[in-house]
Amino acid sequence: MENETKGKTEVNDVKEIKGVKDYKDAKIKIDIDRYRVKEGDTINLKKFATYCDQDVDKSAVKNYAFPQALDEISLLQAKLFAQSTYGLIIVLQAMDAAGKDSTIKHVFSHLDPNGVHVVSFKQPTEEEKDHDYMWRINKALPRRGDIGVFNRSHYEDVIVSRVHNLIEQGKMPKNLISKDIWDIRYRQIRDWETYLNENGFPIVKIFLHVSKDEQRDRLAERILNKQKNWKFSMADINERRYWDRYQELYSEMISETSLKEAPWYIVPADQKWYTRYVVAQIVIKALKDIAPKFPEMSKEIKDQLEEFRKLIESGSVGMIEEMQDMMLPSDK
Ligand code: ATP
Ligand code: MG
Residues in domain Polyphosphate kinase-2-related (predicted)? Predict the structure, then answer.
């Protein structure tokens, strides 16, 4: 209560000091490499955790380390945007109710909306069906300096299409649909992602790994909780029938398409606080790998800014007019 009267800056200061003091010795470091699938590895989803499997302090993560991670992402994103040479693509795939939407909301929503775009890929429209499967994905790619977050992606075209034989009901020429079609698509996806990476658009792919029990509870919650009713879909209940097939196909697809430069991460998704923290750390790593920097200013401009800074600090009322007099010829 006392702090509330103290003004904004001080409240923030107190919060920071509190965080450092309370969580100084707390365990907050996690190893995200254990969730990363190495190129060439054959994985089985059953062997990956759906629960937090590292020794971390939940309260310290929620109240201190996660907000800090978000600040770190913010700064890196500002640099990515200012530099405007690389674009980052983040793909999220998962079984229904694994928490894609809420992960996106918590990890990305505080970022500058000018430079971050979320695109959700639903069942293809008629227009989309009239094109190759990458057409709509290509249209949604981020520009240089931006982060594109894909809520579902081209990976639906090797997963749901396969579970429900959609490719045969589609408009692909029948003579091009051989039994190797899925291997062909894996190859196309690897090539496409390599191409993007070689052009300054790295991709990081995240599979939110939820357990079958947790999915049941979350689907039930969509029925029981009135505020979540809008999320309920009969299709989700039906898709659960194919749980094993999905898990098998996801295991194969992740093995086939995890590349050194475009890796898959299999992130435990039964506990939302942990999922968000792991995803935030993955995003930080992806941005650090790009190592974006604010554009370097010329010595001339730096010297000029230094002069302007002195002018502002001198408290001169007519400082803007004085700056005009000091402007470089190229700025006039
Ligand atoms: P939520 O978690 O809120 O349910 P969602 O991503 O499942 O989010 P929905 O609108 O419920 O969103 O479902 C989108 C549906 O579109 C999914 O069932 C998905 O499999 C399907 N879909 C996406 N891409 C394709 C595709 N290329 N071909 C066929 N179906 C697709
Ligand atoms: Mg759904």
Answer: 72-291
> Domain spans of the chain?
31-290, 299-326
Query: How many angstroms does the Cα of residue 256 sit away from the middle of ligand 1?
Result: 22
CB of 323 within 6 A of ligand 1: the answer is no
- The architecture of the domain spanning 31-290 is 3-Layer(aba) Sandwich (3.40)
**DSSP E strand stretches across the chain:** 36-37, 88-94, 116-120, 147-151, 203-209, 264-268
- Per residue in 236-272, pLDDT tens? 899 999 999 999 999 999 999 999 999 999 999 999 9
151-176 pLDDT, tens digit per residue, is 999 999 999 999 999 999 999 999 99
- The residue whose CA is least distant from atom 3 of ligand 1 is 231
Residue whose CB lies within 8 A of the most ligand 1 atoms, among 149, 150, 152, 233, for a mutation test: 152
CA–CA dist 81, 307 (Å, integer): 27
Q: What percent of the chain has pLDDT over 90?
A: 82
Q: How far apart are CA 126 and CA 59, in angstroms?
A: 48
